[in-house]
Amino acid sequence: MSETDQDASALAAIKAAARKAAFVRRKGAFEAQHPGAAGHLAEVLAGYRGVPLAGYMAIRTEIDPLAVMAEAAAHGPVGVPVIQGAGLALEFSRWHPEGALRDGPFGAKVPEVDDYFDPEILIVPLVAFDAAGNRLGYGGGFYDRTLERLRSRRATLAIGFAFDAQEAEQLPLEPTDQPLDMIVTESRILDFKR
């Protein structure tokens, strides 16, 4: 095994351990969550009414942005991610609160009929985040590839949405990891816009 392969293997192991610890913290926060956890997210998005945005359909113990997405849909286009395949960027299909859904990959619901568009704001799910605006995802690189693609086309605001308990002291990072512009939790708004 080459030194590069050993380094990659070591980083993968560190990331796996960080994810495991973060999932435990997120599960505890999910079980203890209080109504209104999305209040700060609604506050942030109120300043962007009508701007095309994409949220996500929460799975497992993710914090749920659905109420905020429904409110935003009254003012402009809202989409949800649709996985196109391993190693590919996400596409975002228009979502409506009353629209028909089908099962997508990883158990997330997606619109029954695909109607793709490029959002200018992304509400990004995550496993962990740090105080510098970095995120740890599930390991597929979907959001990193997607943010890189969208940001190469136009300014794109990436807002991580998470429980406070998902904050980590430090995260293992790679050069391909895309930073977040903001992180919104149930108690605060962290702004990293560069």
UniProtKB/TrEMBL annotation:
EC number of the protein: 6.3.3.2
Q: Keywords on this record? A: ATP-binding, Ligase, Magnesium, Metal-binding, Nucleotide-binding
What SUPFAM superfamilies would the database entry show?
NagB/RpiA/CoA transferase-like
Check the record and name the Pfam families matching this protein: 5-FTHF_cyc-lig (PF01812)
Name the cofactor(s) required for activity, per the record. Answer: Mg(2+)
Which PANTHER family would you find in this protein's record? 5-FORMYLTETRAHYDROFOLATE CYCLO-LIGASE, ATPASE INHIBITOR/5-FORMYLTETRAHYDROFOLATE CYCLO-LIGASE
Similarity field: Belongs to the 5-formyltetrahydrofolate cyclo-ligase family.
> Which named protein is this?
5-formyltetrahydrofolate cyclo-ligase
Lineage per the UniProt record: Bacteria, Pseudomonadati, Pseudomonadota, Alphaproteobacteria, Rhodobacterales
